Amino acid sequence: MTTSNEALQRWVTEIADLTKPANIHWCDGSEAEYQSLIDQMLETGDLLRLDGGYENCYLHRSDPSDVARVEHLTFVCTSDETDAGPNNNWMAPAEARTKMDDLFAGCMAGRTLYVIPYCMGPIDSPYARCGVEITDSAYVAINMKLMTRMGKPALQRIERDGTFVRGLHSIGDLNPDRRFIMHFPEELLIQSFGSGYGGNALLGKKCHALRIASYQARQEGWLAEHMLIVEIESPQGEKHYLAAAFPSACGKTNLAMLIPPETQAGWKVRTLGDDIAWLHLDETGQLRAINPEAGYFGVVPGTNEQTNCNAYDMIKSDAIFTNVAVTADNEPWWEDKNVGTPAIDWKGQPYASENGPAAHPNSRFTVSAKQNPTYSPLADDPAGVPISAIIFGGRRRELAPLVYQARNWNHGVLVGAGVASETTAAATGEVGVVRRDPMAMKPFCGYNFADYWAHWLSFAERSENLPEIFHVNWFRRDADGRFLWPGFGENLRVLRWIIERCENRADATETAIGYLPLAADIDTNGLDMRDGDMDWLLSIDTASWREEAAAIGEYLQSYGDRLPASLADEHKKLQDALG
Ligand code: OXD
Ligand code: MN
Fold it and tell me: Which residues of 13-22 are buried (b: 16+ CB within 10 A; e: fewer)?
């Protein structure tokens, strides 16, 4: 297969000349191709077949030094450094190109170069965008097949539209000293070298659908966000679509796949997306969302019949596991799976508890979204879904109440900009330290956050019909470290209040930080909670919030002159309200 798009043909030739592969394979996205890549990887040992109750499931073990996103090696290369902003690592484009050309020179010798045309979003959607990833990793090719609309239809769209994002990837020699993830948003180009792992290597995901897309979205008047999209249907058949931004490994997949507990009879939840949303205003001023992805790359540990039964079942067939352990029967195993025992750890060594967890804490499953029993067919609707509410959240043991609502859009932008969360294993670095993660986009915004907030604020001038904005925290603990809120399916109780607020049907108390429910407004029927837990979950400690507001102010000020005045105003209002 080749292409009638001359720019693409030229680029493939140019990259082949640079990287010197033994073969070139244009991916058509067929099942037969998927199976033949799997067979080939089974032969080379890059994949291991899993057994037990797991059908067509495979395990890939990545290099032990290559198990998470590498934010310190991720760069945004704009011609002007300030366009990348203090939120990104920056390198001058020419310097980055030279560095990467040196790394890529001859790097595919003896390997196959895969050309992977893909479409982010429903193929026929005006909101979708295409890309082509060139890679020397068959693991990337099979993951892209599950995660995106990959192959022939995407290539046909590229040939129709004439534009595409270029992504060049090589696993190189997996040497962490020769690992870089470079973005050139002005050229719609990504170059990634030295990692075979997830967000570093599956370039459609974080690199394209967030970093490059956020940059493009600003130019074109839309938003590319780190958000799940979920449909909630009430017992009366009323439907609402919510988009929620939480940092990595804070439960987006679980919330998107929420299973209503028995006490919530008649409620239905369907999933549109678990990680990324592209949001556009339609001609009526309604914000509409599409999920650019077609699969889930989810965190495995913690998935069990209680926490997320649908995900637990969904990954029993046609899934790729990365860095989980295996049992003696060759079933995949992970911490908190609650069945079976590990025999071999994620590194392929006999399991011994003194060596740490059996599955890597950031081990993942890759699976087509269509395997989700609560997959919403609207995920394929070219027009997307209308969003009623945007929800921000983080993992905070203290401070942030269970839920609160922003007073209006601009205040909501401040709430989003002030998001902070404890770090997780999704990225390399220390776990559990609180860091600012505005809109959960700290690792993913492809340009200066100050400009990004200005772009968010500009939506208020374009529509009078914008979604309500909320903040949630499922992770608050008491003085003994006990989680105060049960989380998982019970989060529906909080989503119900959010929907009621969108419908102007629920009460709230106005506080310095926004509108909070009264304890009685959240249904706690049947929950095993102690007296006073709900009050604690909804309490606001003014002294701590003053400190938080000061810290947010300091953080915002680090963006200097570029900080939008109306965001500074919102912040001043918060400080005044806290007294
Ligand atoms: C992810 C992440 O993999 O956010 O989705 O790290
Ligand atoms: Mn994510």
Answer: eebbebbbbe
Q: State in Å: Cα 183 to ligand 2 middle.
A: 18
Distance between CA atoms of residues 136 and 299, nearest Å:
25
Active-site residue set: 250
Task: State in Å: Cα 215 to ligand 1 middle.
Answer: 19
Give residues (CB < 6 A) around ligand 1: 69, 198-199, 248, 275, 297, 426
Q: How many CA within 13 A on the CB side of residue 252?
A: 29
Q: Which residue, by CA, sits nearest to atom 4 of ligand 1?
A: 248
Structure tokens at 360: 């890597």
Nearest in space to 115 (alpha carbons), one of 97, 141, 83: 141
CA 444 – ligand 1 centroid, Å: 10
pLDDT profile of the chain (579 residues), mean per 10: 92 98 98 98 98 96 95 97 98 98 98 98 98 98 98 98 97 96 98 96 98 98 98 98 95 96 97 98 98 98 96 98 98 98 98 98 97 98 98 95 98 98 90 94 98 98 98 95 96 98 96 96 95 95 97 98 98 97
Looking at ligand 1, which atom is closest to the CA of residue 364? 3
> By alpha-carbon position, which residue is closest to atom 2 of ligand 1?
248
Task: Mark 466-499 as b/e (b = at least 16 C-beta within 10 Å).
Answer: bbbbbbbbbbbeeeeeeebbbebbbbbbbbbbbb
